[in-house]
Amino acid sequence: MTCYDRRDVGLLLLRLSTGGVLAAHGAQKLFGWFGGHGLVGTGQFMESVGFAPGKASATAAGVAEAGGGVLLALGLATPVAGASAAGAMAGAAALHVSNGFFAQEGGYEYAASLGLAAAGLAVTGPGRLSLDHLLGHIFDRNWMVPAALGVTAAATAAVIGARSRRLRETVVTEQEVLFEE
Fold it and tell me: Which GO terms describe its cellular component (predicted)?
C-alpha cells in the first residue's frame, strides 16, 4: 500500500489548479469556449499587439496553454508541460509589462504567477499522485527539465524579440508619416 504524504497532495492541488486555469485559457483561444474569441478573434488581437502572424501566434499560445495545462493537471510529461505553459505566460507577461505589475491595472501579475507556478512544477516534478509516477517517469526524466526549459526559453525569447522589433518599426514608421505631414 502506498502512503501519500502532504507534498504529493500539495503538488496535486497545485497541478490541478494551475493546469485547469491554463487549459481554460487555451480553450478560449483555440475554440472560443468560456467567453473566448477562438482562433480568428484571438489571432486578430495578437496581430494588433505585434504578434505576427496572428493566427499562428494564437494557435501556438492556445496549444501551449491548453496542452500544457491538461498535461500539468494530469501530471504527465511534466517538464515539457510546465515549460510550454511557462513560455506562453512569458509571452503574455511581455504583452502586459507596460501596464505595471498589478492585474487590476492590466499588468503582468497574473501571467507571471501562472508562468512561475508552471515552471516550478516542471522543476519540482508532479509528485506520486500523477500519471508520470504511474508510468515510471518515462516522460519525466531529470535531463528533460533543463532541456525543456532551455528550448522554451530560447523560443520565447525569439518570439518576444520579434514582437519588440515589430513594435519599434511600427513606431518609427508612424513617426516618419507624422514628420512628412
Answer: plasma membrane
CA nearest neighbour of 56 among 75, 74, 80, 29: 29
Q: What is the CA radius of gyration of the chain?
A: 18
pLDDT tens figures, 93-110: 999 999 999 999 999 999
Angle formed at CA 145 by CA 152 and CA 108, multiple of 5 degrees: 45
Mean pLDDT value of segment 4-33: 97
Per-residue model confidence (pLDDT) at position 24: 98
Cα–Cα distance, 71 to 19 (Å, whole number): 7
Q: Please compute, for residue 153, the number of CA atoms within 13 A of its CA located in the half-sphere on the CB side.
A: 9
3-state secondary structure of 136: coil
